[in-house]
Specification:
The chain is α/β, with parallel strands linked by helices. The chain has helices at about 30, 50-60, 85-90, 90-95, 105-125, 135-155, 170-175, 195-200, 225-235, 265-270, 330-365, 385-390, 395-405, 430-450, 455, 470-475; strands at about 130, 160-165, 180-185, 205-210, 235-240, 260-265, 285, 300, 310, 380-385, 410, 420-425. Bound molecules: pyridoxal-5'-phosphate (PLP).
């Protein structure tokens, strides 16, 4: 049943509130408001409280979300976000403070930011942190601006940044936005950086190499030590896109692999609900020699003073502010609560479990879908729908058919180097039962492609809206429910 508009639920005289009898002098609205502000026909729905609650509860589950069912959207780390983190972020001492309050009145908040930075330093193997960037993409931009400031300070002009052909779209975008020229390095037959080609491309004009590890195929860049040497020998910096940190925590640290700069996606790895448009947080970690370029202010701690935590604006080589105030504070609180609740062994367990879950799915599904890069994977893997395409069924159709089974489809058509890509990231939050259920749906769809491809090509069949013209739907947003949709 399509959900009606709340206006269509309206019934004359029905009411959703009851107020106590008035105990102050009553006034006419026209005595309080100017005439032109008073609306003659205020058309509001007349509904009871239970009508309202049920209507919005139904609306809230029309769309897919991670609290409803499996959400294996590759690269996005759609893990379950513990509700207690929301409760903590809502505590008045965190939610009712103002960024312009004097430091002595917000020592707790500053302490939280300081300690979160310490944890991220330990997890990332880096020396300094800024919590300011509001997403991974903004962390990338900050990191590249730091790269640029670093070379400028060394009186070096460098114009290029190398990125692999499997990179996330934000990487080239950040490179261009920061004034550099992106240069692509190809992946080899194993889905890893072609180190020989990297060597050829890395000259005195290269400012940095941006690498995602594990890469977007879910494969660990096992040549990282050679890569590190090539990049540093040329005087360039090594940047890690840390979006896939969910595979590494407690196992290996970006700083120890030789990365100079790394961003964290707190909303992915450290449990903030995302996918609905934010807010996110993309802290950036750097090695000691780059700390002087961080955005201001940074949170620091004094010894032996009552007001121990303070904001330091005195970084002479700082790239300046990249975000209002100190970042998306609520997301920082959630990440802090999550890290504290998990502890170091818990974080390691997250990475190990996410790797085991992904390998279990991969090993089972490769019998039904083409696996372009055969190797153990990290926390995610990429299948290709090319076998199914021979039957005229595209990966997009498979994704739509999964909606009929009530799970969110994987990421599709990314990374770009795999045709008809299906990028699957189960995360650590899923039980064996939910993984098996997903396997069952995927096998069913593979059989449907063989026996009844039209069924898959015309999916979805039982979602609130059927197949949309996606461009038209986003350009000409229409959220009205029609009795007889065209
Ligand atoms: C998500 C993601 C990004 C961008 O991060 P946002 O927080 O969405 O800006 C960059 N690289 C990879 C590999 C990602 O998965």
């Amino acid at each position: 049943m399509p959900e009606k508009l709340i206006f269509e639920l309206s019934s004359q005289g029905r009411c959703g509130y009851s107020l106590p009898e008035i105990d102050v002098p009553q006034k006419e609205i026209s005595d309080i408001l100017p005439q032109e502000k008073i609306r003659k026909n205020l058309c509001l729905p007349e509904v009871s409280e239970v009508d309202v609650v049920r209507h919005f509860t139904r609306l809230s589950i029309l769309n897919h979300h991670v609290d409803k069912r499996f959400y294996p959207l590759g690269s996005c780390t759609m893990k379950y976000n513990p509700k207690v983190d929301e409760d903590v972020a809502k505590l008045a001492g965190f939610s009712d403070i103002h960024p312009l309050q004097p430091e002595e009145t917000v020592q707790g908040a500053l302490k939280l930011m300081y300690e979160l930075s310490e944890y991220l330093k330990e997890i990332g193997g880096v020396d300094s942190i800024t919590l300011q960037p509001s997403a991974g993409a903004q962390g990338e931009l900050a990191g590249l601006l730091i790269t640029s400031a670093y070379h400028r300070k060394n009186k070096q002009k460098r114009s290029k940044v190398i990125i692999p052909d499997s990179a996330h779209g934000t990487n080239p975008a950040s490179v261009v936005t920061s004034g550099y020229l992106p240069v692509q390095v190809k992946s080899n037959g194993k889905g890893l950086v072609d180190v020989e080609e990297l060597k050829k491309l890395t000259d005195e004009d290269v400012a940095a190499f941006m690498l995602t590890n594990p890469n977007t195929l879910g494969l660990f860049e096992s040549q990282i030590e050679r890569i590190e040497k090539i990049v540093h020998d040329a005087g360039a910096l090594l940047y890690m896109d840390g979006a896939n940190l969910n595979a590494l925590m407690g196992i290996v640290r970006p700083g120890d692999m030789g990365f100079d700069i790394v961003h964290f996606n707190l909303h992915k790895t450290f449990s903030t609900p995302h996918g609905g448009g934010g807010p996110g947080s993309g802290p950036l970690g750097v090695k000691r020699n780059l700390a002087c370029f961080l955005p201001v202010p940074v949170v620091e701690k004094r010894k032996n003073k009552k007001e121990r935590y303070f904001l330091n604006y005195n970084l002479p080589f700082s790239i300046g502010k990249i975000q209002a105030f100190y970042g998306n504070f609520g997301v920082l609180v959630k990440a802090y609560a999550y890290i504290r609740a998990c502890g170091a062994p818990g974080l390691k367990n997250i990475s190990e479990t996410s790797i085991i879950n992904a390998n279990y799915l991969m090993a089972t599904l490769e019998k039904f879908f083409y696996l372009p890069y055969k190797s153990f994977c990290m926390h995610e893997f990429v299948l290709s729908g090319i076998k199914q395409k021979e039957k005229g069924v595209r990966t997009l159709d498979i994704a739509k058919r999964l909606l009929d089974y009530g799970v969110h489809p994987p990421t599709i058509y990314f990374p770009l180097i795999v045709s008809e890509a299906l990028m699957i990231e189960p995360t650590e939050s899923e039980s064996k039962e939910s993984l098996d259920e997903f396997i069952e749906f995927m096998i069913k769809i593979a059989k449907e492609v063989e026996e009844n491809p039209e069924l898959v090509k015309s999916a979805p069949h039982n979602t609130p809206v059927l197949r949309l013209d996606e461009v038209k739907a986003s350009r000409e947003l229409d959220v009205r429910w029609e009795k007889n949709p065209k």
